[in-house]
Amino acid sequence: MKSRKGKSTVGLRYKLSLPVVLVCCMVFFLAGFWGSSFISQDDKGSSINEGLHQQQLLGANGGEKAVSFEHGESGNSEISSFSFQVLSWKPRAVLFPNFASKETCEAIIAFSRSRLQPSALALRKGETVDSTKDIRTSSGTFVRAKEEKTGALDWVEEKMARATMIPRAHGEAFNILRYEFGQKYNSHYDVFDPAEYGPQNSQRMASFLLYLSDVGEGGETMFPFENYENVNIGYDYKECIGLKVKPRQGDALLFYSMLPNGTFDKAALHGSCPVIKGEKWVATKWIRDKPVSFR
Ligand SMILES: O=C(O)CCC(=O)C(=O)O
């Protein structure tokens, strides 16, 4: 009895377990297959995204020679490429390394040197030339791009317009500046607050600086209120603090004095630290929110 009972139990177990085992195998196989393809799809997705981001960082063509996009009859067929470094979001400031060649910078200096005059300031109500004479101690000259006959300034102006996507007509004449030992520009805003300067037809929305020389020491362009820091410390406008951009021949610095909503950016306060060693040459272009009639 014992043995018959045992035999039939084993047989029943065998009959029942074979299909169950087969079904289980199928289920595990399918689950494994589905799971692995899901994981590999996920991998593929993230590697596509990574590739895309990488490409976007390198430039649309990932560093290879770009092919011009369909540009129609009136479009522009040229592709420009720029390296840039976003230095700050508050204020919006971006550096373009090697924006212009040494030869271009030197042609601009050679043209400007004999025209230099002590730099002037726009005066607020109640201010005089005498009461403001220590604020900006550089010398400078205003030059329209077409006046410089090697074409260096014309080329720079065109490239600036492409880099900013703000038409050339919005730019004032270049202000070419030279700072010698100890010379500086105290921190200030490029926008003209109507409360202090009276009604304005347009505003300087952005400034583009092309450094024409290296500087041995000092002469950095500074942003003391970067990230809205130091706003409430009773900041002395002579002090050289905050974000400092060291001039390097051929590099260009663009910063916006106005926010995207059209209001003044408090963080755009800036100035030039005193030159300690060497000379600083810089070509400044103030870019207005309307075309400029006096350029
Ligand atoms: O020389 C510099 O670095 C700054 C010049 C400047 O602030 C200006 O021209 O408004």
UniProtKB/TrEMBL annotation:
The keyword Glycosyltransferase does not apply. The chain crosses the membrane at residues 12-34. Its cofactor is L-ascorbate. Residues 169-289 form the Fe2OG dioxygenase domain. It catalyses: L-prolyl-[collagen] + 2-oxoglutarate + O2 = trans-4-hydroxy-L-prolyl-[collagen] + succinate + CO2. It is a single-pass type II membrane protein. Keywords: Dioxygenase, Iron, Membrane, Metal-binding, Oxidoreductase, Transmembrane, Transmembrane helix. InterPro entries: Oxoglu/Fe-dep_dioxygenase_dom, P4HA-like, Pro_4_hyd_alph, Pro_4_hyd_alph_FE2OG_OXY. It is found in: Endoplasmic reticulum membrane. It comes from the Eukaryota. This is Fe2OG dioxygenase domain-containing protein. It comes from Sphagnum troendelagicum.
